[in-house]
């Protein structure tokens, strides 16, 4: 078989993929090990900057929680690598494709079924980790408030939702790959972009309420303060909601979401319970900072540009036989995204769009992993900007104390490994974040 020979493009891809996967694993395990060592080493004492505010018990709980999560993450890394190799080089995806081919015959329906079956199987294979995380780790640290019934209900709902929204989208993309000519990826990009925008728009109003209840703020005194702030910042006053996060977890948070008239700031009830009026105002001001700086819109523009590049690349590699043979899918290709197969008459063509899409989605993260720190860097920059905005619109000291409460209540470690944090953290570590706020506070009181 010519495609298996040394130095063929196919062999080169296999080797590049295997090396990239090994490198990624090495980096992930190395970073996680650094994090575990760093947190364990600083477990015995609260860092000086927080000594007055955080009790030692809370600090040690945060350390133990971080270590417990790291253990699960390590297992998950190993399992993820096994699955990835299983799907690709060891022939899992090829076997699933051939099985469905024998059962359904070739066609668009078979390719959609392939994507659906893949999603279902890999979802099931990841499920034990999610259950363990919720009912063992979160439970042990007193965060879990979900029940097996609620958890299963969520699972069922999100699976049905993914099928209802995802299957038509996948079918449309696969159809475009087959029917829209060599520039299909441009059409698919238009569809994908439109879909993302639609999702951003309907998520807060139609999808999130399937899982949680969203109520307008009730407390009158608080409402007056936050309404004044929202007016100052030019944000529609009807856009503030309280979510019953306590149904599932004791973790507290707040976020900004949505597009156009659907945008809103959401406070978890668990957060509201823990903060005083000044702190709520400061946290809201931080979220409004994301809104004023257009962080969501900017992030989406970057995502759209990346997906355009990705789809163009997929458009090219999906036409190359070595893309399939190099990643564990049986060859015998003719090039219009089709392969002839033993069970078909000569000249018949087997659509392979679903195979191409899945292989691409499996393999690209192994290479794009190294862009993660860049994305984390820009995310942390956004957080600093939102903090600076909050410091100007509300009281910096109130935001600092709200953040400290959040760290303590969520058992987030105050002593992450610096390299680990640089690589992964979407939010700046506590020391840096509070440092900037204290500086803003000093400037304010000096003025
Ligand atoms: Zn933020």
Polypeptide structure, described:
- There is one protein chain.
- This protein has helices spanning 9-41, 56-87, 92-104, 108-140, 148-179, 184-207, 220-232, 269-274, 277-292, 295-317, 321-325, 353-368, 372-393, 396-409, 418-424, 430-446; strands at residues 214-216, 240-243, 254-257, 264-268, 333-334, 338-339, 350-351.
- The termini are far apart.
- By secondary structure, it is mainly alpha-helical.
- The strands form two sheets. It has a four-stranded mixed beta sheet with strand order 1-2-4-3. Strands 5-6-7 form a three-stranded antiparallel beta sheet, with no helix packed on it.
- The model is unreliable at 332-347 (pLDDT under 50).
- Helix 1 crosses helix 15, helix 5 runs antiparallel to helix 6 and helix 14 packs antiparallel against helix 16 (430-446).
- It has 16 helices and seven strands.
- The site of zinc ion has 4 residues, from helix 9 and helix 13.
- The chain crosses the membrane at residues 12-33, 72-93, 113-137, 158-177, 183-203, 300-318, 350-371.
- Keywords: Hydrolase, Membrane, Metal-binding, Metalloprotease, Protease, Transmembrane, Transmembrane helix, Zinc.
- Residues 216-438 form the Peptidase M48 domain.
- This is M48 family metallopeptidase.
- Residues 35-213 form the CAAX prenyl protease 1 N-terminal domain.
């Amino acid at each position: 078989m010519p495609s298996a020979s040394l130095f063929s493009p196919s062999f080169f891809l296999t080797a590049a993929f295997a090396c990239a996967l090994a490198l990624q694993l090495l980096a992930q395990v190395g970073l996680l090990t650094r994090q575990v060592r760093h947190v364990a080493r600083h477990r015995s004492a609260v860092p000086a900057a927080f000594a007055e505010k955080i009790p030692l018990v809370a600090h040690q709980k945060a350390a133990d929680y971080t270590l417990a999560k790291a253990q699960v993450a390590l297992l998950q890394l190993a399992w993820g690598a096994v699955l990835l190799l299983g799907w690709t080089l060891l022939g899992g995806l090829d076997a699933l494709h051939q099985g469905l081919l024998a059962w359904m015959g070739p066609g668009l329906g078979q390719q959609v079924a392939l994507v659906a079956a893949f999603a279902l199987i890999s979802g099931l294979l990841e499920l034990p980790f999610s259950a363990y995380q919720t009912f063992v780790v979160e439970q042990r640290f007193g965060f879990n408030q979900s029940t097996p019934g609620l958890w299963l209900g969520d699972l069922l709902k999100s699976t049905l939702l993914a099928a209802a929204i995802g299957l038509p989208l996948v079918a449309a993309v696969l159809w475009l790959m087959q029917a829209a000519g060599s520039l299909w990826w441009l059409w698919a990009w238009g569809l994908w972009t439109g879909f993302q925008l639609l999702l951003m728009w309907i998520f807060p109003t139609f999808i999130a309420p399937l899982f949680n209840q969203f109520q307008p703020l009730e407390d009158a005194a608080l409402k007056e303060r936050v309404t004044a702030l929202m007016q100052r910042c030019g944000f529609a006053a009807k856009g503030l909601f309280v979510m019953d996060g306590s149904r599932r977890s004791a973790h507290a948070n707040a976020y900004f979401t949505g597009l156009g008239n659907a945008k809103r700031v959401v406070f978890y009830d668990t957060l509201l319970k823990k903060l005083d009026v000044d702190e709520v105002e400061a946290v809201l001001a931080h979220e409004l900072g994301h809104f004023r700086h257009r962080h969501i819109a900017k992030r989406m523009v970057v995502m759209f540009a990346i997906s355009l590049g990705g789809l163009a690349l997929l458009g090219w590699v999906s036409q190359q036989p070595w893309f399939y043979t190099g990643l564990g899918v049986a060859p015998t290709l003719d090039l219009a995204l089709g392969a002839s197969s033993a069970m078909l008459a000569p000249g018949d063509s087997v659509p392979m769009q679903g195979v191409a899409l899945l292989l691409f989605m499996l393999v690209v993260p192994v290479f794009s992993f190294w862009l993660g720190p860049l994305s984390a860097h820009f995310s942390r920059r956004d957080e600093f900007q939102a903090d600076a905005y909050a410091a100007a619109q509300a009281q910096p000291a109130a935001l600092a104390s709200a953040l400290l409460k959040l760290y303590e209540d969520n058992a987030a470690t105050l002593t992450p490994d610096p390299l680990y944090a640089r690589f992964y953290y979407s939010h700046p570590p506590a020391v840096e974040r509070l440092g900037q706020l204290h500086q803003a506070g000093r400037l304010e009181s000096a003025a």
